[in-house]
Amino acid sequence: MNIHTYEKTWLAVSMVLIVGFIATVTYGAVGPGIAMIDDDGGSIDPDTINDDERFSDPGVTHVGGNEYEAAVVAQAWTYTPSEITVPANSTVTFYVTSRDVTHSYTVAGTNMNTMVVPGQISEMTVEFDEPGEYGILCNEYCGAYHHTMEGKLNVVPQDEFDLTELSTEAPGEAQLGNQTTINTTVSNDMNYDLETTATLDIGDQQSLEQDVTVPAHGSETVEFAVDTTDLGTGDHDWTVTVDGHEESDTLTVTNATEGGDGDA
């Protein structure tokens, strides 16, 4: 059968278009890393997320070497934590779950894009080679304020990254002549012990130091005993410094005759 040259041309063009469409759909499903939920991450009861060890205190944890894990909880209309910081030249596995309705966890400018379904844990492993800042957004309509659901991913140089956190408990007021305490809890989410020095600077006269070893994935509390007699009455600014992190506040020392609610 004789086929006209034009028909042969259009037939060839049609075949190319069909192959192109198939390639485009295949790339769209696989290439950018867009993924539906599977069973890799496991399941979880949305009503007991706070009881789960991984999601009770979501955030970044050092696994070992250049490997990290990040636990994230999505709910209308926010992510917890809303901002995540990881080091460059690292591999990070994200575990994301939802507390209420279906969301997505999409990191703009990367191939991270997955649905987040209540009862399921989305698992994604991504390599970050260079420092940069990326926006996090929800691509699944989740209610009236869906458009406000966003977060931020910071990839910083390795020498600027650590997982040390401070939490300080201190009285706001103490009576002259009494001893009071300022307690600082140092948390370490790295996979190795942290050996460092905690320093308390208070007023113009006192500077106290204590060496502390914080176990991997653990915490340690440092207690500073402050002699109010040495400080004298008045307001005294204090700063606790540990491994480059600081917390500050003010201690007011009063005379007993002034009726202050100081420590005994």
From TrEMBL:
It is found in: Cell envelope. The lineage of its organism: Archaea, Methanobacteriati, Methanobacteriota, Stenosarchaea group, Halobacteria. Coiled coil: none annotated. It comes from the Archaea. GO terms for cellular component: membrane. This is Cytochrome c oxidase subunit 2. The keyword Mitochondrion does not apply. One of its GO terms (molecular function) is cytochrome-c oxidase activity. InterPro entries: Ba3_CcO_II_C (IPR034214), CcO_II-like_C (IPR002429), Copper_CuA (IPR001505), Cupredoxin (IPR008972), Ig-like_fold (IPR013783), NosZ/Cyto_c_oxidase_sub2 (IPR051403).
